[in-house]
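Fold these two proteins, one after the other.
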Amino acid sequence: MNVEPRFMTPEEVLHVLRLSAQYDPPYVQHDSRMMTVTFETTLLEFNDIREAEIELESALAGFCFGLSYQDDRDAFLLREAEMREILARPAVRTVGDLCHVLSELLHRTSLVPFSIANRPCKSGAIFLTLRGLLAERGISVRDLWPSTPLRLSWDLVIEAVRIAPQHMAFRERSRLLKFLMLPHLLGCGMLLVMIALAILGLGQVLALAVSLAVVMLCTAAAYSPAQYRFPGIVTYRDLCKTLAGEPVARPNKAAS
């Protein structure tokens, strides 16, 4: 097993850029559009597809380099300034241009060697590496085992992307979040109706209560990151096998 660190290829950086738009707040809903981003896509077009409030240089400093403004402000600001300078270069006009520049800066995480019966086990090496990286970020890993149910977090995604960017999965919305988006769409209309009732003096208390409930429900639907998951990945073992490019065993429903 090759555990030597190496720089990412432009193709790997492209996948990282596609992934980055999914983790910029507010959470992006148009995953299919991100897959249309290619080396030929201009940076202006890429920003239109991202539709994120956070600036591209901030997204690159945070997601691509794993820096947090809250945890390491100075390092984040330095990297952000570097990304801003790169994006301002006349020669960097397309996503491909950006990927080739970033491929000389971004490197993949080297793995902790791990073997079973004197045979290298890549998924096991990825688990040990990922566990150690999460511990370095201050996350308790005392009860973290391969069978532990996966909990999606920014720290986990950041480290997983740098281990195997080409195998990192896109996340998807659960049915619950899709259901909760319905009141988000109807909320404005209902709120206007309640305001009209209040102005007319009909059911003022009821109007206020319903209006507040609608606003709270819509806010929860729009900003609930817990409803995102990786399709088909349930445990840390599943994630590590995915990152290793190995098939993930599915539970046998007939046997149960």
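Now the second one:
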Amino acid sequence: MTRLYPSQIRYYDEHPAMTFRLRKEEKEILKLLVERSGKSISQLVRETLLGAEKSNSEPYEKGFNDGYNKAALEWKVFYFCKVCGEMIYITPTSDSHEALVKYMDEHGWGHTKCHDNKRD
């Protein structure tokens, strides 16, 4: 057996060989694709895999972002900075959150139905 250099061992580890079987007609089509594109079989397979991965992740990312943005509009709590006017989001356990909780507690905030029942 031929001795391999460390760089060859690393290359083979990072670029494992893969074999597969095709029908004769499919092999001819693959040969034609290679000739027409000027690319190797591994380049064509790599591009196909990366393209499939990208096309599969795009709808997911769009759906995730759409859902996140909708939820942010409906549920994020914020106030405006008195200096620059930018939104400041209140995150759980932040100083702003604690101040808000304290303010609401001191001013008797609660559920509308609880206040209505208290009046009866």
